[in-house]
User: What shape does this take?
Amino acid sequence: MAKVKKKHITVAVTGLNAIDSPGPGVAVARALRESKDFDIKIIGLAYESLEPGIYMHDLISKTYQIPYPSAGTDALLKRIEYINGIEKLDLIIPNFDAELYNFIKMSVSLQKMGIATFMPNQEQFDARDKVNLYRFGERNGFLVPKDKTIYKVEELNLCVEAFGFPLVVKGKYYEAIVAHTLEQAQKGFHKLSAKWGFPIIVQQFISGTEINIAALGDGKGNAISVIPMRKLYITDKGKAWAGITLEDKSLIELAQRFVKVTEWKGGFELELMRTMDGKPYIMEINPRFPAWIYLTAGAGQNQPAALAKMALGETVKPYMDYAVGKLFIRYSWDMIVDINAFQQISAFGEL
Amino acid sequence: MKLKKNIASSENGFVFNPSTGDSYSLNEMATEIMLMMKENKSSEEIKTDILARYEVDKHQLERDWDDYMSQLKENNLLEF
Assistant: This one.
C-alpha cells in the first residue's frame, strides 16, 4: 500500500524567548513538529538576538527578526512581506499578548498574502483584557476577583480601602506583585508602570490553589481541546516549572462555557485560583497558548497541531480524552553557539 | 468511609488525587488499609482483618483509625 504523503506547510511562530519567564514559541514549535498530519517547516520570528529558540535549528529552521510591537503594523507588515517572499508562509501563530493587537489588525492583509492566522477578533481580545475582566465575569457568570484600574499612585489608597491587604498589583501586559503593605504596593506600581505602561490593575487577593487551563476554541463556540494543569513547582516569577494534568469535569466545563459565550477563536489560557471551598476564580485570561503548551501534546491533545489544521481549513472534532497525571518538568540547558551565528542574527536579522 | 473513585494508589504507598494534582506517600500500614478500601471493603471488615493479623489493642486501633480517616478527609480523598 502506498504511503500517504504528508502535506508540507510552512508555519511562522513568535515567542522564542525560552527563558525563566518563557514565551510559548519553542513549545508550540515542538508540538507542531510532532504533528502526524503535516510535514512542517517552522520559521521563527524574534525580537531580540538572544532568544534561545533562534539557535534551536532542530526545531526552528530559520529565524527572522521582526520590529517591536510599538513600531506599529506598517513596519511589521513590510517585514512579513519580505519574509513571505522568501519562505512562502502558510500560517503565522503569534504567541505574545503585546503583539496580538497588531497581528489581529493585520489579519486581512496577511490573508491576502496567502498567510492564514487563527486568532480571536478585536472584540474577543478586548473582552478578556485585564482592564475589562471583572465586568466580563459579571456579565457572563464567571467568578473574577474585584479590581480597580488606576493611573496614579495616590489611587492605591482607594484600593486598600476596598480590598485591604494583601492585594495584587498587576502590569498592563505581564507580571503581578502581591503587596502586603502600602509601601510594597507603591513600589510595585512604579516598577510595573515603568516596565509595561499604564494602566495598573489592582486586584483583590484570592488565596487557594493555582490551576491553569490550556484550551482551543474553533471560533464557533466549540472547545476543541481543554487541558487543566496544576502547577507543582512555581518560580519566583510565578511561572510553572513543573505541572501535572488534572481530571476535573468542572474545570473542563468552565473552559467550554468560556468558549461558548465568547465564540473564542484560537488558543488561550485560563489562570485560575481554586479556593479552599472549591470556587474557581478566573485571575487572568491569556489570549494565546501558554509556555507549557507542549504538555497538551504530551497528554494526547496536540493543541498547536489542531490549531494549524483549523487555520488551514480543516474541521477538527473536539478531543474527548487525555492522559491524567501527566507531568511536565522544565529544565534549563546551555547551548553553545558560535559568535558567527550571533553576529548573523544581530547584524542581518536572519539566521 | 469510601475513597473517591478516581483516587489512584499503588502497592508501594503512592497515592495520587487526579482532581487536585496532590500526591502522598503512605507508610506500610496506611498503604495496606488504602488498598483494602480500594477493594470496597467496609470499615468493619478492614478493622477485623487488622485485629486478626496484628497485635493491636482494639481501642488503639479505633483511635488510629479515626486519625487516619480524618487525614484522608482533610486531604479531600473521601466521598461524602
Residues 59 and 74 of chain B are 23 Å apart (CA to CA). Chain B touches chain A through seven residues (CB under 8 Å). The longest helix of chain B spans residues 58-74.
